[in-house]
Structure formats: C-alpha cells, structure tokens
Amino acid sequence: MTRTAWAILRKDLRIEVRSKESVPAMALFSVTVFVLFHFGLQRNSLEGDLAAGVLWVTLLLATVLGVNRLFVVEREQGGIDGMLLAPIDRTALFVAKASALFLYLLLLELIAVPAFDLLLLGPDPLKPLPALIPLLLLANVGVAAVGALVSALAVETRARDLIVPLLLLPLLVPVVIAGAEGTEPLFTGSQTPHELGKWLGLLGLYDMVFLLVSIAVFDFLLED
Amino acid sequence: MSESALEADGLVRKYGERAALDGLSFSLPEGQTLGLFGANGAGKTTLLRVLATLLRPHEGGVRVLGADLPKESWKVRGRVGYLGHEPLLYRELSGRENLQFHARLHSVDESRVEDLLVAVGMQRRADDPVRELSRGMVQRLATARAVLHDPPLLLLDEPWSGIDPGARELLEPLIGKSAGKTRVLVSHDLEAGAAESDLALGLRAGQQAYLGEPNAAKLKELYTAPTPHTPHPTP
Q: Do B54 and A15 make contact, defined as CB atoms within 8 angstroms?
C-alpha cells in the first residue's frame, strides 16, 4: 500500500507543481483576507482571542479551496477510473490524497502565518511562532483526513463547490475551537504548558478519530 | 469448446428509475470478440463499464473471467484493459509519466513502458505533456495504457476513432484481432466492426435487440428502426 500511496502522492505533487491550481489560490486567499482585516478593522495589531480567531478561521476557509480541488483532476481527467481498474488497496488513494492536502496546508501556513504576523500582529510578531507549530501540525493531520474524505464525497456531486464548505466547515469546528483556544494565550503571552497540552491533546484525539473513520468509510465512497 | 470469458444472465443496470441495461443475456468464449452495436444512448458504454467493474449490476448475473460481479470484482481488477471515450491520462503529465504511473499501480516493470512507447510510435513525443498532443497521439497513449499490464480481456469503446491508417497498423497487434485476447468492441463502423467480431450484440434503448452472427446488414436495422419508448401513464 505504501508504494501505491507514494506513487499517487508523487503524481499529485507533480501535477500541482505544473498546474499551480491549489496552493497559490489558498495562499493568495489567506493573504487577501488578512489585508482585508488589516484595513477593515482599522487596527495596526490584533491580540488575544481576536487574533487567534482571525488566524484559524482564515486558514480553514483557505483549506476549503484546496479540498474543492483535491479530487477534481481525478474526476475531470478520468484518473479515478484508472485507479479503480488497478488491483490496488483503495486506502492507498485516501492516504495519498490526505498526505497531499497535509503538504498543501504546510505550504499555505509557511506563507500565511508570516503574512498574518506582518499584517496583524504587534511589534514583536515572531515570539508566538514556535509554540504555534505543534498546534498547526496536529490540526493539519485532522483537517487533511476530513478534507480528503469530504472531497471524495463532493466530487461525485454536481454542486461540489457548495457541498464542500457545507460538509467540511461544521466538521472542522473542533479544530477551530482547539486551535484558537490554544493560540489565544500565545498572543497575550499568558500561555502555560498545561493549557497548551490540553488543546494539543484535543487535536490529537480529533486526528485519531477522524483518521480511523475516514479509512473505514473511504472505500464505500468509491463504490458506484 | 473453450470456457466462457464473459457471461451475462438477465443483466440490469439502472440510472435512477431508468434501466440503461435491461435484461441482457449473452456468453462469449475465451479469445473471441463480442461486437457491441447500437445507436447513441443504447447502453454500450454502460455495459463496458459494468464489465470493467466500474459500475455495479443491479439485477441478474454477470461473470467476467470466472468472477461473479459485483461480489468478486477484486478478482477482475488488473485483468481488464479498458479503453473508453476518456483516455484516463493526466493532461499535465507527459505520456511517459502517465504510463509509468499506471505501471506502478499495476506493479508492472517500467521497461514495459519503454517497449510500449516504441510499439505505439510515441517515443519521440513521450516527454511532451499530454495536453500538447493531438487526439490521435493521445489515443495511441491511451491504448498503451490499456494494454500495459497485458490483460486477458480488452474492453474497447471505439478504439480506432481519431487513429490514422499508419497508427492503426501499429496498434493492431496490441488491441486488434491478432492480439488473440478476449475482446468487447464498440464500433459505429458496421462493416469493420462486424468483420472484427465473432459474435454481435445489438442494443436498443438498453434492451437486447440482436444477438448472433455479426452481419452488417442486419445490424444496420438497429440504427434505422425507431427507438421504442414507454408511453406516459394515463392519470
């Protein structure tokens, strides 16, 4: 399975590098939203819960764009039929798609978080960054699992653009809560290791549950 | 007599309430070619997709290469070469990259990719993105993809469309009668299709309108006779 998943992932990354359809759109969207907040709120810097909320909601809305595109190439160019005709473990397809989305999210955050710092944090913007990394990484795992599942489901429907946010965003509410709650003290400088551990634990639990659920039901989504 | 490679008994496949295939029954021995004929929308592509395990039969029995569908679909996957209307190639990847990808999915040695690129006459354009190739070239690559894993059953939906006579000569040993495989062949060229077939199945609005000797004159009636339709129920 690992070999097949790697082959599919490598193919997806190669197509993304050439077509530039997902990551640039996600990054551009999030930077634009930060610019809008910067001017819309008429404040030079945000802090506390407002800063955390703006960051996490923007990242998750940008994720919708990536999830929308995740299976499109397979449906539009018949790739899914090619894979269904092959004697492969279909879980490999889920693993590859979730891994691709995980990497897209990492790239998005490499651009979006510094842009957020620059546009919306105060004079010492880089201070909260190290503690933010584990929160983002754990959130990415769960978002990637749920995103791959929702994308596979939505790509079969005519109203894909509508179905993805309607299904995805409610499922990501726990991620926003844990992410924003875990991030808020970073922006006020009042973080304790115990508090951070609590939210990291919640994200870890979310990841585990949704990874298992996604692997269990993904095969059925591909059935006619 | 050789064993049946394909058997259908009362096969039904529906899209919603509409039966796209309605009670088809036929049998095809190994190594022979079943010609599928019928007007647009008759159900030819649906039948190919059912035999390829891409669609589930809703009623009736279907056996492909000895495996009952849909229960034993997994036994059929990897043993069917499917060449449909879509080439199943990624436009951003080159022909070579596409074939290498499919070779990995089918656990086929990558040297086979190079052999096939030569066989379909695409070695010079093998590194060009598929989106830059002509329709005929894409069809050659799609043919290479379909036979990459040397499947015993070929499901061919108008395989010669967009192919020039020179390319057809190249592809003949791969998917033609001389390939010696069991084939299901959809063709709108009645003379050529009948000449390539051992058995003809004519479909009309999903129903079996003809099963027998491939005779172009008889098959022509499938395209000229009016399509039966279900009258609206009176309230």
A: no
Determine the Cα–Cα distance for residues B93 and B129; give it in Å rounded to an integer: 5
Strand order in B4-15's β-sheet? B67-69, B59-64, B4-15, B18-29, B207-212, B199-204, B33-37, B182-186, B153-157, B80-83
Contact assignment for B106 to A79 by CB distance below 8 Å: no
| Residue of B78, B88, B92 lying closest to A81 (CB–CB) | B88
Eight-state DSSP code of residue B228: P
Distance CA A102, CA A70 (A): 11
Of A77, A84, A85, the CB nearest to B90: A77
Cα dist from B125 to A173, B174, B209, whole Å: 49, 20, 44
Q: How far apart are CA B152 and CA B230, in angstroms?
A: 39
Total residues belonging to chain A = 224
Distance CA B143, CA B137 (A): 10
pLDDT in 10s for each residue of chain A, 224 residues: 789 999 999 999 999 999 999 999 999 999 999 999 988 888 777 777 888 899 999 999 999 999 999 998 888 888 899 999 999 999 999 999 999 999 999 999 999 999 988 888 866 656 667 778 999 999 999 999 999 999 999 988 888 888 999 999 999 999 999 999 988 887 776 766 677 889 999 999 999 999 999 999 998 888 77
Is B105 in contact with A3 (Cβ distance < 8 A)? Answer: no
Q: What is the ipTM of this complex?
A: 0.87
In contact, B170 and B147? CB cutoff 8 Å: no
Q: Which residue of A has its CA nearest to B145?
A: A82
pTM of the predicted model as reported, rounded to 2 decimal places: 0.89
Cβ pairs A/B, distance under 8 A? 68
- Closest approach of A201 to chain B, Cα-based (Å): 37
